[in-house]
Amino acid sequence: MKKAVKIFIGILIILTITAVALQKTTAGIIPLTDWLLQHPVETYYVETSEDNYEKLWTGKYKYVFLGYNEEGDEQQITKVMSKELRPNAFLRMDTSGSYGKGWIEVMEEDIPEDPLLKLN
C-alpha cells in the first residue's frame, strides 16, 4: 500500500512539473486545450504594446492580446512568436479559441469600424 501511494505521489509531481514547463515555454494550457478541441478559425484585430508580452527562456516571446472581431466581440488571445513585435502596430490575427494561429500587420484604415473603436 505504501508503495502505491509513493508511485501515485511521484506521478502527481511529474504531471505538475510538466504542466508548469508547458505553461512557461508555450502559449499555455488553455490554448493547448483549445487546439485539442478544434475550435473554428476566427479573425480578430489586436494592437501591440510595449507591455503585452513576456520573453520566454527559449528566446521566444509570449504575447497576450485583447482582440475584437468584426462584430466588436472581445477575446483574449495568446500567441508565442519568434520575434518581438513593434509597439502600437495593428494585427489581423486568425485564432482558434484563445490561441493565435496566424497574423499579419494591417493599417489602421483596413480595420472594420467596430473593432477599431474598441482598440482606440
Describe the overall structure.
By secondary structure, the chain is α+β, with helices and mostly antiparallel strands. The N and C termini lie far apart (61 Å). The chain is built from 3 helices and 6 strands, in the order H-H-E-E-E-E-E-E-H. The radius of gyration is 18 Å and the shape is elongated. The longest helix is centred in the first third of the chain and has 24 residues, at 2-25. A hairpin with a 2-residue loop joins strand 5 and strand 6 (99-106). Strands 1-5-6 form a 3-stranded antiparallel sheet. The model has no long low-confidence stretch (mean pLDDT 82).
Give the tally of β-strands. Answer: 6
Q: Assign the structural class, choosing from mainly alpha, mainly beta, alpha/beta, alpha+beta, or little secondary structure.
A: alpha+beta
Helix count equals 3
Roughly how much helix do the residues carry, as a percent range?
A: 25-40%
Radius of gyration: 18 Å
Q: Spell out the helices and strands N to C.
A: HHEEEEEEH
Rounded mean pLDDT score: 82
Terminal CA distance: 61 Å
Largest sheet: 3 strands, antiparallel
Shape: elongated
Strand order of the largest sheet: 1-5-6
Q: Approximately how much beta-strand content do the residues carry?
A: 25-35%
- The parts where pLDDT drops under 50 for at least 5 residues are none
Protein name: YxeA family protein
Organism: Oceanobacillus neutriphilus
